[in-house]
Design brief:
single chain, 345 residues, alpha/beta, TIM Barrel, 9-stranded mixed beta sheet, 13 helices, globular
């Protein structure tokens, strides 16, 4: 294992998490070198050039504290497979498209998406702490949200005018990629709307970059605790080391509910024992398993796909191994559906 950098330090007034984010690894060869690997160990036809081509199509970005949880010398490490650019991403596969959830049709301008009754989703930022290779928004045109006018202005006007809304979901990118001052401004504006009873934040950052859960973040969340729901994203039990679990427990104290959603990924977590251990570790960190998603068919991610029959079998095994409150709902997002679509009844 690579030694993780100590937490709690600041350099020239820059918070730890922003410093670590700036130092994230962006070169596939550097990532492999840190893990004592070379391209040829990844499979036939994998070279420095093919890795670079995949990273040019969708840039690589991974914090070093996340790399520290990967196994040296293991080309099949489940954390590595989630973030390492692969030449397989460049192979066209029928049915895998750039906008798998048809979000273009749901856009209302200035980063606002309307998919479900009573809820609106706001793209808070296009930035993420990590670039997951299966991301359903890997081709999303974030720049278009800013061409509609000053950030968030029209979105807030739309939210304020629609009293049928009672929940706003902050997504991205990753909302926790915003600095504390910017995030406080965003949450404060939403909290001022009396008809918005819940603010839900979808984030992977505390899992891959636990230093993000700093005193400033906790201080801005706690006054809004009763209205804040946070959904984190962990896919494998190895992601939840001691530092990460501690940060997540602190985050749970600053919100009304702390939930997790995972994506079912071939080579990463497509076995019942791994998923069961993930649920146990999540619960130990104060998190309830929420959703287990079937992969969204986004171009570049087909090699992660698991067929529905296998997914349903895994879910049955989870039901047999765990108490019901530790079994996430197996779902798929279907464009135009009124909610997530359960695969298992």
């Amino acid at each position: 294992m690579i030694a993780a950098e100590p937490q709690g330090r600041h350099t020239a007034g820059i918070p730890d998490w922003q410093r670590e984010l700036a130092e994230a690894v962006r070169d596939p060869l550097e990532l492999l070198s840190l893990l004592d690997l070379v391209p040829e160990q990844l499979g036939r036809g994998v070279t420095a050039a093919t890795l670079a081509a995949a990273a040019a199509d969708f840039p690589l970005r991974v914090p070093r504290s996340f790399i520290a949880r990967m196994r040296r010398g293991d080309a099949a490490d489940p954390l590595l497979l989630q973030v390492l650019a692969s030449p397989r991403e460049l192979e066209p596969v029928a049915g895998y498209v750039t906008d798998p959830l048809q979000e273009t049709d749901a856009r209302r301008g200035n980063g606002l998406l309307r998919k479900y009754a009573g809820r609106a989703l706001l793209i808070a930022t296009g930035a993420c702490a990590v670039h997951c290779r299966y991301c359903f928004r890997r081709h999303y045109d974030y720049a278009a949200d800013q061409r509609d006018g000053p950030r968030w202005d029209q979105a807030f006007k739309t939210i304020a005018a629609d009293t049928n809304l009672d929940e706003v979901i902050l997504s991205g990118g990753d909302p926790f990629s915003l600095g504390n001052a910017r995030l406080a401004q965003l949450l404060g504006q939403l909290a001022d709307l009396p008809h918005i009873s819940r603010i839900r934040i979808h984030t992977r950052t505390p899992v891959v970059l636990p230093a993000r859960v700093d005193a400033g973040l906790l201080d801005l969340l706690k006054p809004l605790r009763d209205r804040i729901v946070i959904v984190v994203h962990a896919n494998h039990p190895a992601e939840l080391d001691t530092a990460t679990s501690s940060a997540l427990r602190q985050l749970g104290d600053a919100c009304r509910a702390l939930l997790n959603q995972s994506v079912l990924l071939a080579g990463v977590n497509a076995d019942a024992a791994t998923l069961a251990e993930l649920s146990r570790r999540l619960f130990a960190a104060g998190i309830l398993p929420y959703y287990l998603h079937q992969l969204d068919p986004v171009a570049g991610a087909a090699h992660f796909a698991i067929d529905d029959a296998t997914a349903l079998g895994l879910h049955r095994d989870l039901n047999a191994a765990l108490p019901g409150y530790l079994v996430p709902r197996l779902v798929r997002e279907v464009p135009g559906a009124a909610s997530k679509v359960p695969l298992a009844t």
